[in-house]
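[step 3/7] inverse_fold.run input=structure_tokens len=358
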């Protein structure tokens, strides 16, 4: 049972993240140029992708090695539907629904088939590889869905940008796309906090801690795992929609092993079992990738690999859990120093010796 101080700290952390997110949403266009805002929009899409992995792995206990499958399905679903429909309102919903339906079908066979956790990771990774090969083999004009050519390895270029509801002739500019991306990230964070605070979220965490005990008290772990898996796929699909808008195209590389590996690193660096951690990890790693690519003294991939290995070895818990523990320790020291000294107990009077007659 969470103590009152723990609930207060959780609420304070939530409000802090929310205020910082809203301040960044409003202030970023005034603090950076267009190029910087475009980069931040890309960071936001990957932060949402990391949030989907952080939820299903950190709270659901489901290690999805192929989370990039849902990112890619969301991106392709948006690109194909917006090219055919023109208006982006319905395609955004399709980008969320298609990965959720795919995850629901895949998860049903995995969880209700009682496949072990290790095989769940292998299956999701295999599915991601299959989708990469499938979309990679769609070059040629015969591979099209309506007006949208899939394009094979080259992907779908010139993906139409999100437009205001009912106004397809007025696509969003850079600042408008940033507002949508950051607003969506804040909304997803608030939604996940609400889910984790609900009875459903508490049961999901309880299943992660001890699946047998949760089953013995009447919960069906298979159903709760399936729902958590499906929710994370929807979030990854929305991230894929934003990713396609940010780059202006979508290609089979979005299903690649590098994307699945990166999102795991995002979560590990930020902190497993947190929501803010994966988002911070995504931003930090992407910033390191950009910085490493801008120098010529060391191979960027080698340098980044050394940094990541050292980071995981030195800070295995992740940034957010370590920072949280340091803050709690400092707060405890401050509280202890501010507390008045305890009164000294009275000195006991010496007992009368036996046989003295007193």
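[step 3/7] decode complete -> sequence:
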């Amino acid at each position: 049972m969470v103590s009152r101080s723990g609930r207060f700290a959780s609420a304070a952390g939530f409000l802090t993240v929310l205020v910082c997110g809203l301040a960044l949403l409003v202030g970023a266009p005034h603090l950076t140029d267009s190029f910087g805002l475009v980069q931040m929009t890309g960071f936001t899409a990957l932060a949402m992708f990391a949030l989907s992995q952080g939820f299903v792995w950190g709270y659901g206990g489901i290690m999805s090695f192929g989370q990039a499958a849902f990112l890619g399905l969301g991106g392709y679903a948006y690109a194909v539907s917006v090219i055919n429909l023109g208006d982006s309102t319905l395609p955004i919903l399709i980008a969320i629904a298609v990965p959720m339906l795919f995850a629901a079908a895949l998860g049903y066979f995995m969880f209700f088939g009682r496949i072990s956790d290790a095989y769940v990771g292998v299956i999701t990774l295999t599915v991601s590889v299959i989708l990469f090969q499938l979309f990679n083999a769609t070059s040629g004009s015969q591979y099209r869905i309506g007006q949208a050519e899939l394009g094979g390895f080259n992907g779908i270029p010139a993906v139409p940008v999100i437009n205001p509801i009912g106004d397809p002739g007025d696509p969003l500019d850079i600042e408008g796309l940033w507002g949508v991306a950051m607003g969506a990230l804040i909304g997803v964070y608030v939604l996940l906090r609400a889910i984790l605070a609900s009875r459903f979220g508490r049961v999901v965490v309880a299943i992660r801690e001890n699946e047998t005990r949760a089953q013995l008290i009447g919960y069906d772990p298979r159903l709760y795992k399936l729902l958590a898996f499906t929710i994370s796929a929807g979030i990854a699909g929305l991230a894929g929609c934003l990713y396609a808008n940010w780059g202006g195209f979508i290609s089979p590389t979005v299903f690649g092993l590098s994307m699945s590996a990166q999102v795991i690193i995002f979560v590990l660096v930020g902190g497993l079992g947190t929501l803010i951690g994966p988002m911070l990890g995504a931003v930090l790693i992407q910033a390191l990738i950009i910085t490493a690519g801008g120098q010529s003294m060391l191979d960027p991939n080698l340098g980044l690999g050394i940094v990541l290995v050292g980071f995981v070895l030195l800070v295995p818990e992740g940034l957010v859990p370590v920072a949280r523990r340091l803050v709690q320790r400092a707060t405890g020291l401050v509280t202890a120093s501010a507390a008045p000294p305890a009164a000294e107990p009275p000195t006991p009077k010496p007992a009368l010796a036996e046989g003295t007659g007193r």
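[step 4/7] annotate
The chain has 13 helices and two strands.
The beta strands are 144-145, 148-149.
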